[in-house]
Design a protein that fits this description.
12 helices; 22% strand; Rossmann fold; Transcription Regulator spoIIAA; 5-stranded mixed beta barrel; binds S-adenosyl-L-homocysteine; 34% helix; 4 domains; binds iron/sulfur cluster; 440 residues; binds FE3-S4 cluster; alpha/beta; 6-stranded parallel sheet
Length: 440
């Protein structure tokens, strides 16, 4: 009987895409996917450490797996992803979680087959975490979760060292995949019926800097737009590297979706400097306005951190002001979480947690009103959607995403199929979703 695996993924799309590669590697050595965690012979947790609560949830999950291991002593439990790159986490696993058999990092997932063999042969714990990135391993198998859209990682790592952020420490320096490899991947996907690709990187705007030959992100997009893929998305963009050339490519290529995720993190220029973000409030505003003027139907979304060390009410008001001036379509908002080893973790932070929570609630309230207003503006319009499937609760209600990345729930007229591109008339708006009717 074939061995079965079960992967639980935490964190960002990069991890989701890595889990697809891990699944591909496992299937290439004879494993098959388990329908439930209880049915698995191998359980892998692909982890995230960007905020403390992500880590706490994972430790809770590892704790729960102890019972499963007691019932099933041959079960192999593995931990990989960003948490595996943290020395303090590996230490904690070594000392307090003896039921974890395998730990491997973000730089050596290609070693999984040999590491698994080692676990089986030696019946002892295997901990193999490379500190530095080494070269990119191309040609790894991949088992994608979806047939109609796909993640395509275009670069690994980050060089920005925002002072709050642990990602550069656990993902290494920026490395771009070769344009030929990316183009071939996207051509293959299109040939296999995939409609939409999302290009992934911590900072896609600095794509190609390490390649030379005149490659940059705008050029990559221009080349990708020539393939048969119907839609192209990308994330994440760092404001400091967003070029005019990129804005022109977005404006000129209808295949590039009308959505830009452009994290600003904080509205106060003083806090932005402490964060090492390399732009001021005024520069961000100018950039956002330039994009909105050049690509009038662009939907802007953002990430915001509340309660960075030393943030005052006046600093926070700058965040509210920026949110109101730009009028984002949506925002992911986080309370600052100190991460071991980052510069911000050593900064004075006198603001009580209660105050930070109040600020967060206020921010969310203001942003939600803006999001709703933005969605209401779309009522009556026609929007192309990529159809994702029907609702779990009501099989008569389907959903799809617009170019602006808005989720629309709609009633179909006639035949619909997952992965089709259709046109809906928007009939209603909520804070996070739209309602509509699919035109037959
Ligand atoms: N590379 C991307 C996103 C990385 S992590 C970028 O630069 O935008 C995703 C988001 O998590 C960040 O944009 C930031 O808003 C948030 N984040 C990162 N570190 C954090 C921390 N220590 N505390 C709270 N939020 C954090
Ligand atoms: Fe973290 Fe900043 Fe890099 Fe984004 S750009 S991953 S926030 S260091
Ligand atoms: Fe988390 Fe790692 Fe992504 S820390 S946000 S999973 S790069």
């Amino acid at each position: 009987m074939r061995q079965k695996y079960f992967i639980t993924t935490f964190g960002c799309q990069m991890n989701v895409n890595d889990s697809e590669v891990i699944a591909g590697i496992l299937e290439s050595i004879g494993y098959e996917s388990a329908a439930t965690i209880e049915a698995a012979d191998l359980v892998l947790l692909n982890t995230c450490c960007v905020r403390e609560n992500a880590e706490n949830r994972t430790f809770g999950h590892i704790g729960n797996l102890k019972e499963l291991k007691e019932k099933k002593p041959d079960l192999i439990i593995g931990l990989c992803g960003c948490m595996a790159q943290e020395a303090n986490v590996v230490e904690k696993i070594r000392e307090s979680y003896p039921h974890v058999d395998l730990v491997f990092g973000t730089h050596n997932l290609h070693q999984l087959p040999e590491l698994l063999q080692k676990v089986r042969e030696t019946s002892s714990r295997v901990i193999e975490v490379w500190d530095s990135e080494g070269e990119i391993h191309e040609g790894l198998p991949i088992k994608r979760d979806e047939t109609f859209r796909a993640w395509v990682t275009i670069m690994y790592g980050c060089n920005n060292f925002c002072t709050y952020c642990i990602v550069p420490y656990v993902r290494g320096r920026e490395r771009s995949r070769k344009p030929e490899v990316i183009l071939e991947t996207v051509r293959d996907l299109a040939a296999n019926g995939v409609k939409e690709v999302t290009l992934l990187g911590q900072n896609v705007n600095s794509y190609g800097k390490d390649i030379g030959d005149g490659w940059n992100f705008a050029r990559l997009l221009r080349e990708l737009a020539k393939t048969d893929i119907a839609r192209i998305r990308f994330q994440t963009s760092h404001p400091k590297d967003l070029s005019d050339e990129l804005i022109e490519v977005i404006a000129a290529e209808p295949k590039i979706c009308r959505h830009l995720h452009l994290p600003f993190q904080a509205g106060s220029s003083r806090i932005l400097k402490l964060m090492n973000r390399q732009y001021t409030k005024e520069q961000y505003l100018e950039l956002a306005q330039k994009i909105q003027q050049r690509v009038t139907d662009i939907a802007l979304t953002t990430d915001i951190i509340v309660g960075f060390p030393g943030e005052t009410d006046a600093d926070f008001n700058d965040t509210l002001d920026l949110v109101q001036q730009v009028r984002f379509d949506g925002a992911f908002t986080f309370i600052y979480s100190p991460r071991v080893g980052t510069p911000a973790a050593k900064m004075e932070d006198p603001t009580p947690e209660e105050v930070k929570k109040e600020r967060l609630m206020k921010l969310i309230e203001i942003q939600n009103k803006i999001s709703l207003g933005k969605n209401q503006n779309l009522v009556g319009t026609l929007q192309e959607v990529l159809i994702e499937g029907s609702s779990e609760k009501d099989a008569a209600i389907w959903s799809g995403r617009t170019s602006q990345n808005k989720l629309v729930h709609f009633e179909p007229a006639g035949q619909v199929a997952i992965g089709d591109l259709g046109v809906v008339r928007v009939t209603g708006a909520k804070t996070f979703t739209l309602e509509g009717k699919l035109l037959g």
